[in-house]
Design brief:
Number of strands: 8
Strand order of the largest sheet: 1-2-3-5-4
Largest sheet: 5 strands, mixed, barrel
Order of helices and strands: EEEEEHHHEEEHHH
Radius of gyration: 20 Å
Helix content: 25-40%
Number of helices: 6
Strand content: 15-25%
Distance between the termini: 47 Å
Oligomer: single chain
Shape: elongated
Length: 241
Protein backbone atom coordinates (compact mmCIF):
# COMPACT_ATOMS: atom_id res chain seq x y z
CA UNK A 1 0.00 0.00 0.00
CA UNK A 2 1.06 3.62 -0.44
CA UNK A 3 1.95 5.90 2.45
CA UNK A 4 -1.23 7.99 1.97
CA UNK A 5 -3.51 8.11 4.99
CA UNK A 6 -6.73 6.16 4.53
CA UNK A 7 -9.89 6.10 6.60
CA UNK A 8 -12.51 3.38 6.25
CA UNK A 9 -15.96 3.59 7.80
CA UNK A 10 -18.27 0.72 8.76
CA UNK A 11 -16.77 -1.93 6.49
CA UNK A 12 -18.50 -5.34 6.75
CA UNK A 13 -16.15 -8.03 8.00
CA UNK A 14 -15.22 -10.77 10.45
CA UNK A 15 -12.46 -11.13 13.00
CA UNK A 16 -10.18 -13.98 11.97
CA UNK A 17 -7.63 -13.84 14.78
CA UNK A 18 -6.33 -11.62 17.55
CA UNK A 19 -3.28 -11.69 19.79
CA UNK A 20 -2.13 -9.52 22.69
CA UNK A 21 -0.10 -6.42 21.88
CA UNK A 22 1.65 -4.37 24.55
CA UNK A 23 -0.17 -3.93 27.87
CA UNK A 24 -3.84 -3.71 26.90
CA UNK A 25 -4.01 -3.69 23.09
CA UNK A 26 -4.38 -6.42 20.47
CA UNK A 27 -3.29 -7.13 16.92
CA UNK A 28 -6.24 -8.18 14.77
CA UNK A 29 -6.50 -10.00 11.47
CA UNK A 30 -9.86 -9.24 9.89
CA UNK A 31 -11.50 -10.32 6.64
CA UNK A 32 -13.56 -7.57 5.03
CA UNK A 33 -15.89 -7.49 2.06
CA UNK A 34 -14.25 -4.62 0.17
CA UNK A 35 -10.66 -4.47 1.42
CA UNK A 36 -9.91 -8.18 1.85
CA UNK A 37 -7.66 -9.26 4.72
CA UNK A 38 -6.55 -6.35 6.87
CA UNK A 39 -4.23 -6.09 9.88
CA UNK A 40 -5.36 -3.70 12.62
CA UNK A 41 -4.08 -2.50 15.99
CA UNK A 42 -6.92 -2.36 18.53
CA UNK A 43 -5.66 0.00 21.23
CA UNK A 44 -6.84 -0.65 24.78
CA UNK A 45 -9.25 -3.35 23.66
CA UNK A 46 -8.10 -5.80 26.35
CA UNK A 47 -8.83 -3.27 29.09
CA UNK A 48 -11.80 -4.08 31.33
CA UNK A 49 -13.27 -0.68 30.40
CA UNK A 50 -13.15 -1.29 26.66
CA UNK A 51 -16.56 -1.08 24.98
CA UNK A 52 -15.37 -3.15 22.01
CA UNK A 53 -13.98 -6.06 23.98
CA UNK A 54 -17.21 -8.07 23.95
CA UNK A 55 -17.95 -7.50 20.27
CA UNK A 56 -14.55 -8.55 18.94
CA UNK A 57 -15.20 -12.26 18.63
CA UNK A 58 -14.65 -14.63 15.70
CA UNK A 59 -17.69 -15.71 13.66
CA UNK A 60 -19.71 -12.58 14.51
CA UNK A 61 -20.64 -10.25 11.62
CA UNK A 62 -19.10 -6.86 12.37
CA UNK A 63 -18.70 -3.39 10.91
CA UNK A 64 -15.11 -2.14 11.19
CA UNK A 65 -13.90 1.45 11.03
CA UNK A 66 -10.17 2.13 10.87
CA UNK A 67 -7.51 4.46 9.62
CA UNK A 68 -4.16 3.45 8.18
CA UNK A 69 -0.98 4.70 6.68
CA UNK A 70 0.84 1.69 5.28
CA UNK A 71 0.21 -2.01 5.85
CA UNK A 72 -1.15 -1.93 9.43
CA UNK A 73 -4.19 0.13 10.39
CA UNK A 74 -5.57 1.40 13.70
CA UNK A 75 -9.05 0.27 14.71
CA UNK A 76 -11.45 3.13 15.42
CA UNK A 77 -14.59 1.11 16.09
CA UNK A 78 -16.09 -2.36 15.68
CA UNK A 79 -19.88 -2.59 15.71
CA UNK A 80 -21.82 -5.84 15.94
CA UNK A 81 -24.09 -6.73 13.02
CA UNK A 82 -25.54 -9.79 14.73
CA UNK A 83 -24.92 -12.57 17.22
CA UNK A 84 -21.96 -14.91 17.20
CA UNK A 85 -22.72 -18.01 15.12
CA UNK A 86 -23.86 -20.91 17.32
CA UNK A 87 -20.96 -23.22 16.54
CA UNK A 88 -20.12 -26.31 18.58
CA UNK A 89 -17.73 -29.24 18.32
CA UNK A 90 -16.65 -30.12 14.80
CA UNK A 91 -18.51 -27.14 13.32
CA UNK A 92 -16.53 -24.77 15.57
CA UNK A 93 -13.20 -26.42 14.72
CA UNK A 94 -14.12 -26.25 11.04
CA UNK A 95 -14.78 -22.50 11.30
CA UNK A 96 -11.34 -22.01 12.87
CA UNK A 97 -9.92 -24.01 9.96
CA UNK A 98 -11.54 -21.62 7.48
CA UNK A 99 -10.05 -18.67 9.36
CA UNK A 100 -6.58 -20.18 9.28
CA UNK A 101 -6.80 -20.84 5.55
CA UNK A 102 -7.69 -17.20 4.93
CA UNK A 103 -4.84 -15.94 7.09
CA UNK A 104 -2.30 -18.26 5.52
CA UNK A 105 -3.30 -17.88 1.87
CA UNK A 106 -4.76 -14.40 1.36
CA UNK A 107 -2.48 -11.43 0.81
CA UNK A 108 -3.42 -8.33 2.76
CA UNK A 109 -5.48 -5.65 1.01
CA UNK A 110 -6.44 -7.99 -1.83
CA UNK A 111 -10.26 -7.83 -2.16
CA UNK A 112 -12.20 -11.06 -2.66
CA UNK A 113 -15.92 -10.20 -2.37
CA UNK A 114 -17.01 -13.56 -3.82
CA UNK A 115 -14.90 -15.40 -1.25
CA UNK A 116 -16.23 -13.13 1.50
CA UNK A 117 -19.76 -14.17 0.56
CA UNK A 118 -18.73 -17.84 0.49
CA UNK A 119 -17.14 -17.51 3.95
CA UNK A 120 -20.24 -15.85 5.42
CA UNK A 121 -22.51 -18.50 3.88
CA UNK A 122 -20.25 -21.29 5.17
CA UNK A 123 -20.49 -19.97 8.74
CA UNK A 124 -24.28 -19.83 8.47
CA UNK A 125 -24.54 -23.41 7.22
CA UNK A 126 -22.16 -24.63 9.94
CA UNK A 127 -24.21 -22.78 12.54
CA UNK A 128 -27.39 -24.42 11.26
CA UNK A 129 -25.95 -27.91 11.60
CA UNK A 130 -25.17 -28.46 7.92
CA UNK A 131 -22.86 -31.15 6.56
CA UNK A 132 -19.44 -30.04 7.82
CA UNK A 133 -17.39 -31.97 5.27
CA UNK A 134 -19.43 -30.66 2.33
CA UNK A 135 -19.11 -27.07 3.62
CA UNK A 136 -15.34 -27.39 3.89
CA UNK A 137 -14.87 -28.92 0.45
CA UNK A 138 -17.01 -26.25 -1.25
CA UNK A 139 -15.13 -23.48 0.51
CA UNK A 140 -11.74 -24.96 -0.37
CA UNK A 141 -12.74 -25.15 -4.04
CA UNK A 142 -13.93 -21.52 -3.95
CA UNK A 143 -10.75 -20.42 -2.19
CA UNK A 144 -8.47 -22.01 -4.78
CA UNK A 145 -10.56 -20.52 -7.57
CA UNK A 146 -10.35 -17.02 -6.07
CA UNK A 147 -6.59 -17.32 -5.60
CA UNK A 148 -6.15 -18.16 -9.27
CA UNK A 149 -5.36 -21.82 -8.59
CA UNK A 150 -8.75 -23.27 -9.53
CA UNK A 151 -8.97 -27.02 -10.04
CA UNK A 152 -9.84 -28.36 -13.48
CA UNK A 153 -12.74 -30.72 -12.77
CA UNK A 154 -14.69 -30.84 -16.06
CA UNK A 155 -12.28 -31.66 -18.88
CA UNK A 156 -9.40 -33.90 -19.83
CA UNK A 157 -6.48 -31.42 -19.93
CA UNK A 158 -4.76 -33.29 -22.79
CA UNK A 159 -7.69 -33.48 -25.21
CA UNK A 160 -10.15 -30.87 -23.91
CA UNK A 161 -12.90 -33.49 -23.95
CA UNK A 162 -15.48 -33.72 -21.17
CA UNK A 163 -14.66 -36.19 -18.42
CA UNK A 164 -16.30 -39.60 -18.57
CA UNK A 165 -18.03 -40.62 -15.32
CA UNK A 166 -16.78 -44.21 -15.66
CA UNK A 167 -13.21 -43.30 -16.63
CA UNK A 168 -10.30 -43.20 -14.20
CA UNK A 169 -8.06 -40.12 -14.27
CA UNK A 170 -4.58 -39.43 -13.01
CA UNK A 171 -4.84 -35.92 -11.54
CA UNK A 172 -1.84 -33.64 -12.14
CA UNK A 173 -2.18 -30.97 -9.46
CA UNK A 174 -0.79 -28.09 -11.48
CA UNK A 175 -2.75 -28.88 -14.63
CA UNK A 176 -5.63 -31.33 -14.21
CA UNK A 177 -6.92 -34.83 -15.02
CA UNK A 178 -5.68 -37.16 -17.75
CA UNK A 179 -7.07 -40.66 -18.45
CA UNK A 180 -5.15 -43.52 -16.95
CA UNK A 181 -5.09 -47.28 -17.34
CA UNK A 182 -6.83 -48.89 -14.33
CA UNK A 183 -4.31 -51.74 -14.46
CA UNK A 184 -1.33 -49.41 -13.92
CA UNK A 185 0.02 -48.87 -10.43
CA UNK A 186 0.76 -45.45 -8.96
CA UNK A 187 -0.53 -42.03 -9.86
CA UNK A 188 -3.01 -39.77 -8.14
CA UNK A 189 -6.16 -41.47 -9.43
CA UNK A 190 -9.81 -40.35 -9.26
CA UNK A 191 -13.06 -41.47 -10.80
CA UNK A 192 -14.50 -39.17 -13.41
CA UNK A 193 -17.83 -39.28 -11.57
CA UNK A 194 -16.18 -37.85 -8.44
CA UNK A 195 -14.48 -35.00 -10.29
CA UNK A 196 -17.70 -34.08 -12.07
CA UNK A 197 -19.64 -34.09 -8.79
CA UNK A 198 -17.01 -31.78 -7.24
CA UNK A 199 -17.40 -29.41 -10.18
CA UNK A 200 -21.16 -29.25 -9.49
CA UNK A 201 -20.62 -28.82 -5.76
CA UNK A 202 -22.45 -32.06 -5.02
CA UNK A 203 -21.10 -34.04 -2.07
CA UNK A 204 -23.95 -36.33 -1.08
CA UNK A 205 -22.03 -39.47 -2.11
CA UNK A 206 -19.53 -40.55 0.61
CA UNK A 207 -17.09 -41.67 -2.11
CA UNK A 208 -17.17 -38.19 -3.65
CA UNK A 209 -16.48 -36.64 -0.25
CA UNK A 210 -13.58 -39.02 0.29
CA UNK A 211 -12.09 -38.23 -3.12
CA UNK A 212 -12.63 -34.49 -2.67
CA UNK A 213 -10.84 -34.45 0.67
CA UNK A 214 -7.90 -36.35 -0.81
CA UNK A 215 -7.64 -34.04 -3.82
CA UNK A 216 -8.13 -30.75 -1.99
CA UNK A 217 -5.72 -31.59 0.81
CA UNK A 218 -3.02 -32.26 -1.77
CA UNK A 219 -3.87 -29.13 -3.78
CA UNK A 220 -3.80 -26.86 -0.73
CA UNK A 221 -0.49 -28.33 0.40
CA UNK A 222 1.10 -26.86 -2.74
CA UNK A 223 0.36 -23.35 -1.49
CA UNK A 224 0.46 -23.84 2.27
CA UNK A 225 3.92 -25.38 2.21
CA UNK A 226 5.24 -27.71 4.89
CA UNK A 227 4.04 -25.71 7.90
CA UNK A 228 1.08 -27.64 9.35
CA UNK A 229 -2.28 -26.02 10.02
CA UNK A 230 -2.82 -25.56 13.75
CA UNK A 231 -6.60 -25.86 13.39
CA UNK A 232 -6.31 -29.44 12.12
CA UNK A 233 -5.03 -30.44 15.57
CA UNK A 234 -8.43 -29.46 16.99
CA UNK A 235 -10.13 -32.28 15.07
CA UNK A 236 -8.24 -35.06 16.83
CA UNK A 237 -10.31 -35.14 20.04
CA UNK A 238 -13.50 -35.15 17.95
CA UNK A 239 -12.36 -38.21 15.98
CA UNK A 240 -11.36 -40.07 19.14
CA UNK A 241 -14.58 -39.23 20.98
Amino acid sequence: MSGAKQRVELEAGYLLHQRPYRESSALLEVFTEVHGRVGLVARGVRSARSRQRGDLQPFRPLRFSWQSRGDLGTLIAAESEGAVMALRGKALYSAFYLNELLIRLLARHDPHPVLFSAYSSSLQVLGQGGDVEAVLRRFEINLLQELGYGLQLDFDVETGEALGPDTLYDYHLESGPVPTDPDLQGGFVFRGASLLAMARGEFGDPLVLQDAKRLLRAALRLYLGDKPLKSRELFRPVKQG
